Amino acid sequence: MSPVRVVGPQSVRGRIRVPGDKSISHRALLLAGAAQGKCVVRGLATGDDVARTRRLVESLGVTVREQPDALVVTGVGWDGLREPADIIDCGNSGTTVRIGLGYLAGRPGYAVLTGDASIARRPMLRVVEPLRVMGAAIDGRDAGALTPLSIRGGNLRGGRHELAVASAQVKSALLFAGLQASGVTEIASPARSRDHTERMFMGLGLPVSEDDAVVRVEAADVPAFEIDVPGDASSAAFWIVAALVTPGSEVVVEGVSLNPTRVHFVEVLRRMGAAIEIDVQGESCGEPFGTITASTSELTGTLIAGDEIPLVLDEIPALAVAGAFAEGPTEVRDADELVVKESDRIGAIHQELSQMGVGVEARRDGLLIQGGRPLAARFKSHGDHRIAMAAATAALGCEGESQIQGWAAVATSYPGFSADLEALTGYAMEEFA
Description:
Elements: E1 4-8, E2 13-16, H1 22-34, E3 35-42, H2 48-59, E4 63-67, E5 70-76, E6 88-89, H3 94-105, E7 110-114, H4 125-134, E8 137-140, H5 141-144, E9 146-152, E10 157-162, H6 168-178, E11 182-188, H7 196-203, E12 208-211, E13 214-218, E14 222-223, E15 226-228, H8 233-245, E16 250-257, H9 264-271, E17 275-284, E18 287-295, E19 303-304, H10 309-312, H11 316-325, E20 329-332, H12 345-355, E21 359-363, E22 366-370, E23 378-380, H13 385-396, E24 400-405, H14 417-425, E25 430-431
Parallel strand pairs: 2-16, 3-14, 3-15, 6-7, 10-11, 19-20, 23-24
Antiparallel strand pairs: 1-24, 1-25, 3-5, 4-5, 7-9, 8-9, 11-13, 12-13, 16-18, 17-18, 20-22, 21-22
């Protein structure tokens, strides 16, 4: 695909609704498939990742119908989920693979999950091993460390799991497995991570409880439900940073998820001096939502480290752009998980910020970014949707023409990003040979 062109600087002004929250959308589809009857899901995320989870659910015999403003999912209950007739292709969606394993672990049939070249490199033992302990038979490349992965589930046993890494995906896989297991399933994490699964379980009255960083669940049927999926906070982060670093900007993101484990990046930006306001307006299935307003601000560098890393891991590319435009250094520590995301994000961020003339040092577990006045550049997406959107965000704040190679990667989570950029700036991103 030809690169796209962005000529900056471009002020970012207006009101916008970002696509539905990706994390909530995955979980809503999985719960709806296992539910006892018809479920209505409004505002589902539009990207390819969530489409992969929809196909997983459909492959298990669940009917999903599109209506003008919603999806109607006719759940078949746990016992109605059938053995898939073919291999399940999860594309670039690590969430579909990892949580899908937990979902399938309690079913007595056989399934095979695979994905693209990026998924084939991502570590899977962190979810495979505890599911094996619960009773699922899982195998794959490198003894189950890598996809493709085969699973034969059924007859799961509860128990306590001590996670080595604070991971919402692993925790969620075990929670879905725990809904199908005998006894109590208990998951202890070393730090707080995103809690969409727990909130949705609680919102549906399922037997889940939380005490500090320990979550417990017991077997249960899932009732039919309706949900309005709020906007994706990780997608909103790019517009918020764009408004902060481009002159004369103010953006209002409406109907966005305000789950505290998803908007911690706002606290990081406020620490840097950002003018950001949050207004909670309601709740859907345990998830708060509302508006985030951001305007042009003078930023200073900060330290991002420790227990806050699991709460901002997906937003590090956007925060790195903020650090590039800030006064003084921004340091990211304890984020070695970045190297096993859709790309090696430490290496990708280092390479792309360096292209802008930004002083940046890549480290084993993070980055040191020397803020200043970034320059227009030729960027690469590295096949990673968040790196592509971070490049566009940075380009909006730079004088002159930037190019982004591999823009198609944004379809993973935000296929309408270019149209929204035009709506907020009046500038149409151009593709050229």
